[in-house]
Structure formats: C-alpha cells, structure tokens
Amino acid sequence: MPGKLKAKIVAGRHLPVMDRASDLTDAFVEVKFGNTTFKTDVCPKSLNPQWNSEWFKFEVDDEDLQDEPLQITVLDHDTYSANDAIGKVYIDIDPLLCSEAASVISGWFPIYDTIHGIRGEINVLVKVELFNDLNRFRQSSCGVKFFCTTSIPRCYRAAMVHGFVEELVVNEDPEYQWIDRIRTPRASNEARQRLISLMSGELQRKIGLKVLEMGGNAVVGYLQCFDLEGESGLVVRAIGTACTLDKLSSGSAPNTNTHVHPNTAPASNACNSPSKDGKESPLAHGCRSTHNSPVHSACSSQRLSQNFSVSVPTLIFTGMGSGGSAGKEAGPLKTLLRQQTQTALEQREFPFFTLTSFPPGFLVHVGGVVSARSVKLLDRIHNPDEPETRDAWWEEIRQEIKSHAKALGCHAVVGYSESTSICEEVCILSASGTAAILNPRYMREGCLDIGSTDHRFEEPSPPSCGFCHIPYDELNMPFPAQLTYCYHCRRQKVPDVLFTTIDMPPEAAVTGKGCLIQARLCRLKKKAQGEVNATAISNLLPFMEYELHTQLMNKLKLRSMNALFGLHIQISVGENMLLGLASATGVYLTALPAPGGIQIAGKTPGDLSNEHHILTIQKRINDTITKNKELYQINPPELTEEVVGSPIPEPRQRSRLFRSHSESSDELSELDLSHGKKDAFVLEIDDTDAVEDIHSLLTDAPPPTGFYSCNTEIMPGIYNWTTGVQMFTSVRVFRLSNANLTNQGLNKIFTDLCENLLKSFYFKLRSMIPCCLCHLNFTVAVPEEELIQVAVTAVAMTFDKDQTQEKPADKPVTKGCSETEEQLQFPLELCADSSSITTQTSSKISGVPESTNVSPRAASVDYGSFADRCSTWLELLRLKAHTIRRGSVKTSRRTQSLAHSVSSLERSSPLPEGRSRSLRSNRSFGGSSVPVVKMTPLSFLPGTRIIKYLGIINMFFIRETTSLREEGGVSGFLHSFIAEVFAMVRAHVAALGGNAVVSYSMKECVLMENPNKNQAQCLINVSGDAVICVIETDQESMPSTINVVQTCSSGADGAT
Amino acid sequence: MAVELDVFVGNTTIMDEEVYQLWLDGYTVNDAVKVRMEGGVLEEFEASADVLLSDTMDQYRTFQMCERLLHSPAKLANQLLFQIPPHRQAILIERYYAFDDAFVREVLGKKLSKGTKKDLDDISAKTSVTLKSCRRQHWVQFIGCDGFDNFKRVFKVVEELKGPLVENIRQHFLLSDKLARDYAAIVFFANNRFETGKRKLQYLTFQDFAFCAGQLINSWTIGAVDNMVEDMDVDLDKEFLQELKELKILITDKDLLDQHKSLVCTALRGKTKAFNEMEANFKNLSRGLVNIAAKLTNTKDVRDFFIDLVEKFIEPCRSDRWTASDMRLYLTHYTNSAHILDTFKHQVVWDRYMGVIKSCIFKMYHD
C-alpha cells in the first residue's frame, strides 16, 4: 500500500563560509528518499538562504517509508569543480506513519557533517499522505506505536499485554568493506550512518509485523542495540513488549493503571482499589511454603552452535540467609491460579517483559534476579539475510533465563534486558531480569471484558507488600533460604533480602529513603586469542558475579537496607581485563525483616594485635551502619508482638558469609552464592585481600547533604518533586600507565573513578540542592588495552525539602486521589488549548481571580513550541470542540477552571498572543528564539503531564576528526559531539511539535582515538520518546472540576 | 595513570558566573582553580581539588565553544547547539563585551591598527590590568589590538547598516544601552582617529571622551541631519564643517569682535570674580574657539580637536583659576551674545557648533 511523502525546503541560516574569496556560500539542497532525488535552486551568495522550494513529492511503498530515512544534503554550488557538501540531515519519518503521533515535521534542523560537526541549520517541512486508509495497517506494520518507556505510557491504557517481541538484522559493516580503503572518511561514515538508519527502520518494521501478528498495536519498553562486531559484521537487535494500548480519549482517565473495559467505571473495578480487595477477599491463604535463597546457578551446557561457545554458569540472586522455616500448604485456589496463569504464559515461547513498572495488580510476586551470560567467538556473518547464528545464541540465553525463572517458581520474567560486550572476536552475551508471577488477566484474550470472573483468584495480599511474598514452594526450596512472615501483613512468607531489576512498585511500603549502591570490580586476564581467550573469560565470569554479589550484599547491609531495585550488572571485556559494575537502588522495604549487621572475624583468634585490629574495623563498620541509618532515615517500627505460630527469626540474626573459593574448582557446577548455610553474617579476615575489600566497603562516601542518588526512575522515599530538571551525560576515560597492576590496584582505580564521577556531579549540580540524581546509568567499557571508559547519563531533579519526611499517610487512598486528579487534568489541558484557539470568548475570561494562582508555576515551562504549532492540533481540536461545548453548558464551574487553564497557557507563552496564533509559515522566517526542549531518562517530567506521544527518537551519529588537537583534544572533541547530539535530538523533537524527550538514553558511546595521528572517531546512539507535555494545573481547583470531566467524558464518548 | 578524557554536558548548559569571569579575565585553568579554592568553594561543598579542576575545565571548554557565538551575539539566541535560558544569554553577552575603562582609555590614544604585544605590555603595566586580561578583554579585539581581523569584522557589521550607530550596536550585539554608547564612542574615535594620548589629555577619563563622542555623534555627524545614510553616525557632516569656515568673521571682522566682547562683558560684569581675566582674555579665547571651528575641514585638525580645545581654551582658563560655574556663565553668554550681533548671519551653524563645544568643555573642565 503506497503513500506519498512530501518535503519542502524553506530556508537555511548560519551556513558556513564555503567560498573564501567572497566569504559567502552558494547553497542548494538535495532531497533524497530511496532512489529518488530532487534539488532546489542555488541560492547564491548567502549564509542565510531562502529557498522556499516547491513540495517535492515521493511516491513510495510504506515498507520503504518505514525503513528509509529522508536524506537532506546541503551543498555549495561550484561552477568549475565538484560541489562541496556542507552537511546532511536525516529525518526519520516513522512518527508520521502513525495517526496518533505527529502529523507534520517542521522546524530547524542542524546540518550535520561527520567531519565538521554542526554547520548551520535548515528549515524543512515534511508530510506523509497514506493512501487506502481502510486497510492501512494490514500488510505493513505502519501504525504500530513504539515506546522506549518501560512502563505503560502515560496517556494510554493497557488493554492487553501480549509479551516478548525480538528481532535482529545483520549486515556487513561498511567500515570494513574493501571499498573503505579508497573512499573518504566522510563517505565511509555516511555510509555507516545510513546503513544503521536503514537497519533500524527494517528492524522496527519487522518487530511491528510480529506485534500485529500477536494482535497488538504497540511496543513498550523498546530496546534497540547495535553490536559492532568489526570484521564479522554489524548486528542491530531489538527487544520489547507487545501490548494493545488504548488511547485515553479526553473523556476517560489517563490512568495507566486500569485494565478494565472502557465501559466499566474505574471505581467499580476491584483491581483499581487493591486495598479493598484485601479486605473483601475471604481467600486468605496462610502462606505458601516456599523458600528463598540466594543463588541457584545453572550448569552450562556446551551448545556449540558455531565454532565455539561457552555458556557460563549463571546466577539467580534473590536474597540470602539460612534455615528454612515451616509453612502451610498452598491453598487449592492458589494452585488453580498458578495453573491458569501458567497455561496463559506457556503459550509463549518466552514469557519475558521489558517493562520495569506495572499497573497495580499486574505483578503478583517477585522471585529474584535471574541472569545468564554466554561467551561466544564471533565469525563472519556469511549471509546477512539469514542471521541464524546470532538468533540461536540469544535463543539459548533466553531458554536459560526461562529455566532459572522456573526454578524460582515463577512463570515470567519482568524488567528483562539483554546486552553484549565485544572485544576483538570475543563476545559476551548477557541477559537478566526478575523472575515473577504475574496476574494472568492481562495475558489472555477477552479476559479484560469479564474482569470479575478472574477476581476470585486474585491474591489477597495488600499491594504494599504482596510482591515481596515468595513465589516458590516452601517445601521444595530451590536453594536454602531464610524466610519470615511478612512484616507488613503477617500472613505470608518473605525472604530476608530481595534483589530485582525492576523499579520499585509505587505502592510498596518503604522505611526511610533509598540510595545508589554500586559494586565495582576489575579482573586481570592474560591476553589470548580464540578459544583459549574465550575459555579464560568464561572461567573468570562466575568469580566476578560472586564478588559483585558479595559486594552488593555487604554494601546493602552496611546501609541497613534489605532490598535492591533496578539492579543492573554489566560485565565488560577488554584485551587484558574484565570490568564488572553492578548498580542498584537500595531501600528498606517495610515488609522485609531488618538486615543484620556485619561481624568481622579473624582467622587466628590468638593473635592480640590482630584482634585489636579487628575490633577497630568492627567499630568502624558499626559506626557506619549507625550513621547510614540516620542518613537514610531508616527507623523501622519496633516489633511489638510476634505472629503466633510463625518462626520469625530475631531481627538481629546474622547470616554467614564465607570468603571461600572452594566452589570454584568445578567451573560447571552450581554456584552457590549463599555461602553455605551458616547462621551469622560474618566477614572473615583471612588475608590482605579481605582487609582491602573491607576497606573498600567503607570508602564509598555518602552523597553530600541535600543530595540523594538512585538508578531507578525515582527515589523511594521522596514524593514531592518540583519542576527543576537537568539531564546530563558525562564521560570519563582513565589511562592506566602502570603495566604491572594487581587486581587490588585496579579495583581501587576503578572504584575511585566511579566515586569521583559522582562527586563531580554533586559539585556541578550544587545549585539545585535539595535534589536527587535519578536514573544514574553507568556504562563501562575497555576501549583499548590500558583504558577504562565510564559513561553516565542521569537526571538531577529538585524536590521540596520540607515535605520529604513522610510518604502520604494512606497510600492506597491518596493514590486513588491522584488518579482522579489525572483523570481531571487531562481533559482540562485540552480544553485550554482548544478554547484558546477556537473560541475567542473563552480567552477573554482570563481575568478570573483564580488564574493568579497558576501563573508563577506556569511561567517555568515553554509553551512556545506548541502554542506556535496550532495547526498540528487542528485535527485534535476539531475532535474535542463539541465536547467542550457540551461541557460548558452543563456545569457552571467549568468556565472558571477553563479560564484558569487558558490563562496559564497564555501567561506562560513567551510569544505575544498574536504570534502564538500565527501560522507556521510565518515562524520559519521569523528568526524567533529556539523552543526549549527538556530531556530526561525518566518516563515523565515532574510537575507536567504528557498529553501526547509523538514517536520514538532513535538516532545514530558518527563524528570523526583529523585535527584532534585543534578541537581541544579528546575532551574537546567529545564535549562538542555530545552537545551536538543533544542539539539534534532537541531539534527533531521540536520539529515533531514536542517539547520534551522522555525515557532518553545513550545506548552506545564508542570512542576511538589516535592522538599521535591527531585523529579520533566517536559513535553515539541515543533514543527516547518525543512527547508534548503541559504543566499540571493547580490542585486546588480539582474538586470543583469533577463535573467537568464527567461531562467532557460523556461528550467524548459520543464523539468517538 | 591519568584521566585521559573528562566531559560533562548538560541538556541545559551549566555555567558558573564566577568561572566565566575568571575566564574573561584571562586566567588559565590552573590559576582559576587556585582562585576558586581560595574563594572557599571547596569547604562549602566538601569537594576535592580534582573535582574543581574537572569542573573548571568543562566550563572553560564550554566558554570557548560559545565564544564563536559571542562574536555575533544575535546568533546566540537562535543557535541550537547550547540550550541556554535567555536571562543567562544576556549575562554572557554583557559580561563578554564589558571592559575596563582605564584600559580602553589607554587604547583610545594608540594607533589602533598596529597594536603590538609591546603596546599591550606598556598598557597593562600602566593600568594594572593583567596582560592576559588585555588580550581577553574583547573590546581589544574589537579595537584591533589583538589583530585587526576581529575589529574589521565587527566594524563591518556596523558600517553596512543604516540608522543610528548606538541603536545598531545595541541591536546587533544585544548590549545594554550604556555599553552600546561606550562602543559607539570607541567606533567613533577609531574612525576619526582623535588624538587622546597626549600628555596634556591624560587627565581625561574614558567616560569624559565617551560623553564628548556622544555629543559629536548627536550633533555633528551626517546622522544629525539625515538618518538613512550609511556611516551616518561615524563620519562628521562635511557640509557642516565647510560652513564652519564662515564663523571666522567673528574674529576677522574687528567691529564684530569688539561688539561681541562688549556684549559678553556687559552681561558678565559683577557676576563673577574672574571678570577681569575674562575681559582681558576674551579675544584670545574667542580666536581659539573660532579657529578650531574653521580648521575642522582638515582631517589632521579633526584629530587634534581635543588637544586644541585643551590648549586653546581650557588651559588658559585654568591658569586664570576659573571655576566650573565661571566657565558655564562665560560660555553661555558667549554663545547667546552672538545672536544679538546684527551683522552675524550664521546663527544656525553657530548653535550647532557651540552646543557641542559647550557640553564638551563643561565635561572636560575639571576643577
């Protein structure tokens, strides 16, 4: 089914001087799509040319529309010699293919050259007309929506979660083709950029097809990665979660949580008020007899698919402890539930979900972290059309993950992600996730419509602790574990420690605040080739996992916390070392028992000086624990009474940690991270290594006063975010000059590198205090033999200090309120917008006193970008218009609240009123100021509401220089490149009509340098979701507007 | 072992005003770190010297990348590379173009095209502005000490534009009104090559000259009569200069000179202690002022305008110990009396000339 792509080149500005003689440029533009190219006239002697071209029309298949980018090349006309390229703009037109996303791309784009960086800007208009509207989505995957966000996007409702989708495509890397020897670096870079753009387009289209097959209409938690395998090729792979999303019309609530049928009122649905569930349900199963304990490791099997492959013993982290405890048998209904759920999930090959946060009721129990790694030797991909080898590799890993989850009594894996680390021909494939039991209702066709029938199988656990309850069978524990009755509901068993890769469920009860916990590790390895190398690496991996786990556990206890969220373990391979970095956010879950302390024991008790030494260390550890408790405000309520019949261990009970490597002798055996079934948590000092380790435990400096940090979306324990947001990317590369480094020495360097980075962030962002660094995402790499590279992307967010102490008293209730709020505000924003444009009268009411409340807040967000873009909205407005009119008739209060939002819109607009209503064509020439685009790695911006998702941003850039010194060395080079990447992302978002990017991430930053040759090259891949967000209206007006929403919603129903 | 690469890039560009000033003042990264350490940032925020070094380097890099944009500030507002809030942009620009009066005063007297390192050494020694800062202070580039290219580029912008000079500078460089006026003065002085470096002129400050430049721009340039010509505020009105020759009649016609003197003396009698000196010096002073006017058609004499004012008028008065109010009284009556002379026909030119002369002398006559 074909479509028509139309592009118009309007103008350029700030072009570089291409003709030295005249200090001017004779610029023209080539517009290329597929194999068709159009040219504009030459605009002679101008650095700010006005082409104002005709509409260039491309008639193409929608398959091409999905795969190909629109390529715009700006050139300098030269009569006597070849025309010089100034730079290019690639525009991904995918957002235009989805009716719900953007309808036009219009704005200033930086003109980018891989050698010179940004060279001026060009103003472009792009539109797409798809023919054959009726059958539009049948044969291609146009219209399937993609989201990087790893939760249900804010203005959608998940009607159904279908499950895992994956795909990979491979190709030869142009950089390694023979032709590369004769072409210029620029040509080579451009070939690569274009190829990757094509490949991601193709990948997205193929995934889209799979989603359609499954009956879905969207991919959430879309994660796309590149593997630069060098000689052996280029792999682009992606995973995601297929869903059926319903757009929340202005009438229904933007409540991502509900999974009820649209006709069912939210309040009547049981799932929406989980606390009520708990009370009503008579089905109190005592507790399930299951176990929990640390590690279960899968034996690897040599599945030699190609030349060589080693599957590494992998781990399941849950918690640790000792001694099982007796429990009651699982109720029959539970079994029924399980069977039902399993059948629902077993139909799927991989019951994996890339989501990290879920609608309430979706996540029933969490087992623990499951992960799998495998070491592979790369070989040339002979036939790009059949990437079976790579597929088989991942298949293996996924099978392993699945079986780990089963061992934990879980039927699904959530918070699932995959990654690779490549060095020369060795590749480590990793996958990890959190084993979990899910509510089956989301997975089965038709279930949502008869939600009540499923209701009786629902867990009776309260939402604030239910997910902590063990999912596995207490009588057949897969590993030794220490269980207690839940400290919150007292009815079911919980482990003493819980590790997960997901975000903390918002309804979970926590004590105090959380903090970032990192385990860092370096291991030297001998340089080797081929299989020897791969074997060496796979032998090292289990030890690294073990050590990282030990560090995490110790650091967790040192902070007096009992759970980790957002755990991400990265193992990166270099020629002569392996780097391991585990990051997570530690919290004290109220439902879990208090962690024991850490006790130091010496190997030789007789030695007096040694004993003294141990006492000193013990004291330091105890002091640190006390200090941390204060710092993170961890004051768990004292237990007044024990639940009868349950063997709850004393809170101070200790588990033992052995520093023994005995298990290691058998590399393929199960790796037991529980460190044996000991009853005390003891660190034994038997050698200097152990002393070092303990010291390094204590070196982690807490963040300075006023700062918090976490790697999850938001910080557990902070609830009142204000609007200050600063997203940043920081990269550091450290050169090891000393060739004779020991493991210990390396560890210290690596730890210092990470700690110093954090310190730098705190210092730089000190003006934002009180603030929290959220979603701290560390990526480590070993780009060359003696280099360690750490790249961090995070966001600093301000919060209101005065109210941080207490979580709103009654969470389920307040949650309900806030949802109502959400329901209310969404239509209001639309009303505001439409009325300011369509009805002159409504904007006149802006003098209503209430409006004064809003203005100070409203001023902080730039509405210019979309106030300007009225025409983008026209479609939407036409839809909403009668809704509003109906609303206004029915409620008297409506005008007031409407005026309120109108005024907020107008006041916050930096442009004069007349301007904001002007047409886009005027804007192009105006030289008006650049619209502000906010960026954040989170799925939301505090204080604002996302009202529209405009499409996915997935961009890949290469930058190269042959004048490294002149550009300020590697730092100068990378600094400007990152700034350029930000600028290009912002420009694309603004052109789509957006004012923010959410779920932004920098997935790749590969830097290669050769200072001797004065050269450097860098590849960056970024992604995110372009959105329109508006400031949240004041809460005070909310109660008065309930009527509005109801009328609005009824109106909307009528409309749709 | 060393940090090979270290960058921090924010979506909103982070800039510390203190570091910016240090950068403008020409401090090296290491010196800036020292200054910041002494300032106590570290104690305030438990940071180490490494952290400070890393932060300073980042910011210096950012400023260097921004500098290109600061050369034509209008670009700063619609460039896409750095997301900088508008109020911060204004601060960046205003600070970038701010300069040290004492220093610019020195340069006003120099031959602008041939600024050498040695000249800068001398100036920096005299004004105790560090040499680094001389080089950094961007008006230096503007004037041309640091190479004529930058001056030419900026000058070209103003040159090609029609309309008032101050307004053009203000709009194209987005400067405050005060700073734009100062720049207009610098451009004006540079264009007309006024001599300001002579020892006798040393007592005058840059602000004195800037004031005079403003007066000349407002009344004596082409722009004063026609506001749509190129260079209207930079070049003096040639026709007017030609007409000034006619004023010579005031000193060449003996009757007119005597008549003028008696009118002035009548008006002044009893109103000042310096009356006797005024009466005795009248003819000399009048010849002085009128001769200056008559010679302004020569470029050389235009250059000596200020030195002539001082030699021919201000110095004689000062040696006779006139007070500032004496000066006002005298010049007011001197100007007004010429209107009563029935044979003197050049009233308009006279007013245009004396209006500027009066205010310049008032400004330049320090008690």
From TrEMBL, chain A:
CDD domains: C2_KIAA0528-like. One of its GO terms (cellular component) is plasma membrane. InterPro entries: C2_C2CD5 (IPR037785), C2_dom (IPR000008), C2_domain_sf (IPR035892), C2CD5 (IPR038983), C2CD5_C (IPR057815), C2CD5_YbjQ-like_dom (IPR056430), C2CD5_YbjQ-rel_dom (IPR056431), UPF0145_dom_sf (IPR035439). Residues 250-298, 888-926 are annotated as: Disordered. It is found in: Cell membrane; Cell projection, Ruffle; Cytoplasm, Cell cortex; Cytoplasmic vesicle membrane. Keywords: Calcium, Cell membrane, Cell projection, Cytoplasm, Cytoplasmic vesicle, Lipid-binding, Membrane, Metal-binding, Protein transport, Transport. GO terms for biological process: insulin receptor signaling pathway; intracellular protein transmembrane transport; positive regulation of D-glucose transmembrane transport; positive regulation of protein targeting to membrane; positive regulation of vesicle fusion; protein localization to plasma membrane. It holds the Pfam family YbjQ_3. Residues 1-109 form the C2 domain. Residues 250-275, 289-298, 894-907 have a biased composition (Polar residues). The keyword Protein transport applies. It comes from the Eukaryota. GO terms for molecular function: calcium ion binding; calcium-dependent phospholipid binding. SUPFAM superfamilies: C2 domain (Calcium/lipid-binding domain, CaLB), YbjQ-like. This is C2 domain-containing protein 5. It comes from Lates calcarifer. The lineage of its organism: Eukaryota, Metazoa, Chordata, Craniata, Vertebrata. The gene is c2cd5.
UniProtKB/TrEMBL annotation, chain B:
Pfam families: FIBP. It comes from the Eukaryota. Signal peptide: none annotated. The lineage of its organism: Eukaryota, Metazoa, Chordata, Craniata, Vertebrata. PANTHER family: ACIDIC FIBROBLAST GROWTH FACTOR INTRACELLULAR BINDING PROTEIN (PTHR13223), ACIDIC FIBROBLAST GROWTH FACTOR INTRACELLULAR-BINDING PROTEIN (PTHR13223:SF2). This is Fibroblast growth factor (acidic) intracellular binding protein a. The gene is FIBP. Transmembrane segments: none annotated. It comes from Lates calcarifer. GO terms for biological process: platelet aggregation. GO terms for cellular component: nucleus. GO terms for molecular function: fibroblast growth factor binding.
